Amino acid sequence: MPELPEVETVKNVLNNIAKGKTISYVEVIRPQTIRSDVNEFQSVLKGATIQEFSRYGKYIIYHLDRDYVLVSHLRMEGKYFHRDEKIKPNHNDLILFHFTDGSYLAFNDTRRFGTMELVKKEGYLEREPLNEIGPDPFMMKDSSRLYEAFKNKGVAIKPCLLDQSVMSGLGNIYVDEVLFACKIHPETPAKLITKKQFDEIWYWSKDIMGRAIQKGGTTVISYHPTEGIDGEFVNELKVYGQNGDKCVNCGTPLVKKFVGGRGTTFCPHCQRNIARPYVLGVTGPIGSGKSMVCKYLETKGFIYLNSDEIVHHLYELKSVQEGLKRFVPHLKIKDGKVDRVSLRDEIIANPRVKRYIERYIHELVIEELERQIKKHGPKEKVVCEVPLLFQSGYNLYCDETLMLEVDEKSQIEHLSERKEDVEKALRLNARFKLDNNQKATYTIINNGSVASLHQKLDKIICKKCR
To answer: Is 261 exposed, middle or buried (0-12, 13-18, 19+ CB in 10 A)?
Structure first.
């Protein structure tokens, strides 16, 4: 979707190719694009000269030598093409402005969401739809408007910044980039953002979009500002569209999750959610020492949450047992609990059942982990033991992640000490590396003594989290 820099680029292109041209007639191929009366639209524009194009928020304004202005919104995929009359329109051209010089301007929109509307020139900024649009960052003298609008809002800062009625111009791409520059987590409640941070949001909004305008905006996926022009700012994006890449500041893998219904990419290390405690997710194959790590961190002041214990509790609930029976109709129940041994055997024998059960259980485990984490304040530290951390998607809820690696010899020793069925445990865990192939913030190889494991934790985790 075009945002302020892309719309500004289109406006500049239009001033270069169509400013001063006189419209001989308008061809309306798709009447639904016109929000005003179509006959009046064609009548008013016939013979009108375009004095200039301007931008207000994400709207393009045609200034005419008439008592009207034409307000155009590109929406998702709208763009303009200037062609000679000899060139036939294509099937995505919706409105054609034929000029007296033998050329025409085509409004092209593959998604067909774009709109046009004639609005009386006098006081047009006070009329719909422009009266619902806030000033863009370049029009604002400071961040006071942002601070006053959001200082009492408990919702996440990202959807707040997407609210065009407060400050216009920022869309999904540039909100991600601005929040990264400000080191603000997109889920941080707006009321926790300080006045100084709103100053930074306003500053970086101007800086980033100003540089994007100089580069012709950002070309992503199918959007190009206009024919023959690519937005070169795509090469300078730090987070948007780069899920899994290393953060340019700290090297932590970037993560993507939905915030306010919008795909959002950020660095979990640089952009901490200050409303939550620090959360470290610990994962690794069976017998790698996850519990040892978590119990040691518990002695260092961490709150220890164990996803296996949560699963044990879930297996006692009748609602969960009924849910599991959808995948394993002959599920065995012992003393009111799911028989985990028989369920494990079923999972080993049927990979498809394994996928379904894990998807079902993961959602419940995440819900419970988050419920427990919300009990704790932002100054506390939590360590979560989650064997399938990345496969479940819980890594997206963690500030940082720790992966334990272990050789087979040490793994067998650990399993034997726990009196586990080594063969079955290894078979169940055979796909661990394939299912958890994303990079963790930290990796520890746990093939040595308990003392050496503690030393490694002291060096990379405890020292950092004091």
So the answer is: exposed
Is 186 an annotated catalytic residue?
no
Q: Of 35, 153, 262, 439, which one is the catalytic site residue?
A: 262
The answer to whether residue 89 is catalytic is no
**Domain spans, the chain:** 4-131, 144-241, 278-462
Active-site annotation holds for 3: yes
- Whether 268 is catalytic is no
**How far is it, in rounded angstroms, from Cα 426 to Cα 115?**
60
- The reply to whether 144-241 and 278-462 are identical in fold is no
Q: pLDDT tens track of the chain, all 466 residues?
A: 678 888 998 899 899 999 999 999 999 999 999 999 999 999 999 999 999 999 999 999 999 999 999 999 999 889 899 999 999 999 999 999 999 999 999 999 999 999 999 999 999 999 888 999 999 999 999 999 999 999 999 999 999 999 999 999 999 999 999 999 999 999 999 999 999 999 999 999 999 999 988 877 665 444 344 555 555 677 789 999 899 899 999 888 898 999 999 999 999 889 988 899 999 999 988 888 899 999 999 999 999 999 999 999 999 999 998 988 888 888 888 888 888 888 878 877 888 888 888 889 999 999 999 999 999 999 899 999 998 898 888 988 898 899 998 887 777 776 666 656 666 656 666 655 545 556 788 999 988 888 999 999 999 886 665 5
| Residue with the two structure tokens 């402005």 | 97
CATH 3.40.50.1820 fits 4-131, yes or no: no
Q: Domain 278-462 belongs to what topology? A: Rossmann fold (3.40.50)
Burial zone of 305 (CB within 10 Å; 0-12 exposed, 13-18 middle, 19+ buried): buried
Give the CATH number of domain 144-241; options: 3.40.50.150, 1.10.8.50, 2.40.170.20, 1.10.340.30: 1.10.8.50
Alpha helices in 237-317 (DSSP H): 290-299, 307-314
Q: Identify the active-site residue in 2, 186, 253, 387.
A: 2
The CA-based angle 401-405-410, given to 5 degrees, is 145
